[in-house]
Amino acid sequence: MKAAVLTAFGKPLVIEDAPDPSIGPDDALVQVMTCGIDGTDLKLLDGFGYTPELPFIMGHEPAGVVRQVGSAVTSVQPGDRVITYNFFTCGACPLCLTGREQLCPQMAGVLGVRDVPGGYAEFLKIPARQVVRLPEGIPWPDAAVLCDAGITAFHAVDRARLTLGETVVIVGVGGVGSFAVQFARLSGGRVIAVDQTEEKTARAVDLGADVAINASAQDVAASVGQLTGGWGADCVIDIVGKEATLAAGMDALCPGGRLVVVGYTPDTYPLNGKSLAQSELEIIGTRCGRKQDLIDVVRLVAEGKTKSIVTDLYPFDQANEALARLRDGKVLGRLVLQIGMP
Ligand SMILES: [Zn+2]
Questions:
Q1: 296 C-alpha to ligand 1 centroid (Å)
Q2: In the chain, what are the domain boundaries?
Q3: ∠ Cα 246 105 73 (to 5°)
Q4: Which of 6, 84, 88, 203 has the most CB within a 10 Å radius?
Q5: 29: β partners
């Protein structure tokens, strides 16, 4: 099969013939139609933060068709359209057993990120229990981005515990943020989107934000104050995670407010204990999501309740050009590779 292979950190992917995966009794063989690309792929490419054993096939947002199943598989069959739940969890630890498997400390691998080859290839092998079936009607590019952008935004909004009429600020409207704006709106929140360019803030409004703030031209906390009659936001969802966004997010909260941290960088942020305690603020971390979050997000998208976040499509042969475009900051929403998709 054709695959785009990471053979050395800091070097372009090599598009070459790789061995076809052979499946075991519990596996499914999936023909990949599309695969999303995001910032994690750039970190993998650079060997920064993630260093899988090389050679390695990246790609953690694949969507495709099951072509073959192992003898013990009953949950899917050839012809099913599927996407992947990427965390290969142990299924037996206290976190797995209490519905928080995304925190499992004993994961056997993360598809396309470490130990398990991903979707930058014509085929992938995956245990059948790791796939989620897709209903008809979700186009291949939109299906792919649910595997990471969709599930992550859905789980973050769930962690935010929004209630009807609350004001929520979404900081960073790229792939995850494009979904977070829409899910926060569906939760009944009044959505204020924040990003660095007019192009991105205008797009956030198109996706359903009530108002958008250009952080390169306006002070975020002061603007949120003005938009809330001096009160502040009930919740801030930070998808960027730099010191400046964390600081602005904390400053933008009303008393009793919640800061949900999705994105992260090497930055740290000095916490003001007095303000945290006396205003009863909450800081909530969130990581990807549970398999059930992925199932729920598939249903929401299939019901037509969201707009597409895919802004760029690239043919598989141009995987390196696609990664370069992402690195240059030219992707407005999400970029998707067309692999088996015509
Ligand atoms: Zn576990």
A1: 21
A2: 2-145+309-338, 151-285
A3: 120
A4: 84
A5: 68, 125
**Whole-prediction pTM:** 0.97
DSSP-derived pairing of the beta strands 233-238 and 253-261: parallel
HSE toward the beta carbon, residue 26, CA cutoff 13 A:
3
94 CA to middle of ligand 1, Å?
Answer: 7
Q: How far is the CA of 102 from the centre of ligand 1 (A)?
A: 8
- Gap from CA of 311 to ligand 1 centroid (Å): 35
- Report CA-CA distances (Å) from 15 to 1, 7, 43, 196: 10, 10, 19, 35
Q: Phi and psi for 311 in degrees, rounded to 5? A: -115, -15
CB atoms within 10 A of CB 277: 9
Q: How far apart are CA 95 and CA 90, in angstroms?
A: 10
Interval between CA 45 and ligand 1 midpoint (Å): 28
Question: 107 alpha carbon to ligand 1 midpoint, in Å?
Answer: 7
Topology (CATH) of 151-285: Rossmann fold (3.40.50)
Domain covering 2-145+309-338 in this structure, CATH number: 3.90.180.10
Distance from the alpha carbon of residue 88 to the mean position of ligand 1, in angstroms? 9
Q: pLDDT tens string for the chain (342 positions)? A: 999 999 999 999 999 999 999 999 999 999 999 999 999 999 999 998 889 999 999 999 999 999 999 999 999 999 999 999 999 999 999 999 999 999 999 999 999 999 999 999 999 999 999 999 999 999 999 999 999 999 999 999 999 999 999 999 999 999 999 999 999 999 999 999 999 999 999 999 999 999 999 999 999 999 999 999 999 999 999 999 999 999 999 999 999 999 999 999 889 999 999 999 999 999 999 999 999 999 999 999 999 999 999 999 999 999 999 999 999 988 999 999 999 997
CA of 87 to the centre of ligand 1 (A): 10
Structure tokens at 236: 């801030």
